[in-house]
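Model: You mentioned two targets. I'll fold them one after the other.
Researcher: Yes, keep them separate.
Model: Target one:
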Amino acid sequence: MIIDSLENAAKYEALHPSFKKAFDYLRTTKFEIVDEGLLYETEGVKAFGYYGKGKTTAESLETFECHDKNIDIQFCITEKETFGWKPRKNCVTPNGDYNDEKDVRFFKDAPDMFFTLHRNQFVILFPEDVHAPMITDGILNKVVIKVEV
């Protein structure tokens, strides 16, 4: 997992061939309020917008998730968003089967820690990062970029 501000994103572009495309999209798009759903797609990169009421911690932990085929870059447009996190290797209680079509696997485990993103910050979540996003007491406005592994 990597947490940083968009102004420092260039430091991470060498980590994956599609990261530059993803960060260029975030740097060049004027985000005020995003539309929900698919916003952008190019080879190996898809960006989705989320706008609406956030979740409580308990609601978010129902979708404590990770991905096998994609790396998430989650970008905070609003004032803040909290996440739960735990290393995948320490998760022992699956919550259903892996969904290949949606590339998502859920766990019933509790996070080891919580962290908060603020406006113009991002988190890069690799397949080994189990995460519970969208925790906020206000309106959530964010972009999630799926980068093929």
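Model: Target two:
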Amino acid sequence: MNGDAHDRAGVGGLAVVRSLAQALLTHVANLPLTILLLVSLALVPLGVGLVLLPPVLLAVRGLTNQQRRWALDWSGVEIPVPYRPRPAEASTAAGGAAGEAARKATRVARWTATVRWLLRDPASWRDMLWTATNSVTGLVLGGLPAALVVYGLEGVLVMPWMPDLRTFGWGPFWPLGDYGLAGSAGCALLGSLMALLGWRYGPPIMRAYALVNRSMLGPPRGRLEERVRELTETRSETVDASAAELRRIERDLHDGAQARLVALSMHIGLAEQLVRDDPDAAVRLLAEAREASGTALTELRGLVRGIHPPVLAERGLDGGVRALALALPMPVEVTVDVPGRAAPPVESAAYFAVAEMLANAAKHADAERAWVEVRHNGSALVMIVGDDGRGGADPARGGGMLGIGRRLAAFDGTMAVASPEGGPTVVTMELPCALSSPKT
């Protein structure tokens, strides 16, 4: 029993310390952020708010993520992170080859994508609401255990010896006109009771505060249902794309390599019949058979390359992207920083995504140069493809971009297109993935 009482006392003391930390964080961080948030929202109609709002919202996210960590570590309450994935940012180095206009467009596209990402995320608006309400609940509920203990200790250790401080709230226990023994005893008794309540009920109070935060900071049920619908649609699109790809392979095999192999078999059979009676004709048939075998082999290699390019298996994504750049009729600046290998399906999806964007730049954008940047940011493979063409690219019109977007979505990936009329075009794609051991 003594051990259990000691453990409870330790837990209660820890809860009081944590409550004090919570109250300090609310006072030092939450209140200033609330003021900055209100000012930024008020200045949005003037345009200044669009500049101030993103850093303020990112700071709010840092505060809410700290609350999520504390809720889990201190009270065992898990608050899932509901934010939508952040779009990958194009670096200024990626647009350097296209001159100052490309660099400026890259910076504008990066800021615009950040603003759009923050304001379109429902979790950002829930964060704003939490920030405003937590200015009160963080002090009242989160700081309640510490307030009870500190105020109680004040009643025990300070008030009986300083009767001039009766305005702090201990006056009812003092006799009118004279401090008296009864007043001192009343202060000490009530102070002890308050400190005991804060110490004993600190953990459940902190847990209640964590549950309040979870109700506001966790993903709403509608968001979970929306995510299920997104995954269902993505799965359906992936199944349809896989079925279409299988039909294409079957058609290519039937119309191409299979027909070549059938002709090859017929030429060899005829050569067998003529080898004794007409050797010259047999030789001609064998030559045609050799030519047909070479054509069939070329078609089979092209078919395999369309499924999984051999260059990926041999040289990885770095070599594959550089091979794509060399095949284009315009200069392409390539920067690859991927310290390892992604899973083969992810590498293949990344390769074909870059290939499609470079093909669009060469065929439709009238671009004179392009650039490709591929890197891994610790949690995802980021691919940025840009060109100095005429712009106006829009995945909503269908075509290859739409197909690539669906292919990336199958891996929970994203694609953002910044392509104003007159260019340049910057396509930022992201594929969540882990890498194998770094290259040696």
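Researcher: Noted. Anything on target two?
Model: The two ends are 59 Å apart (CA to CA).
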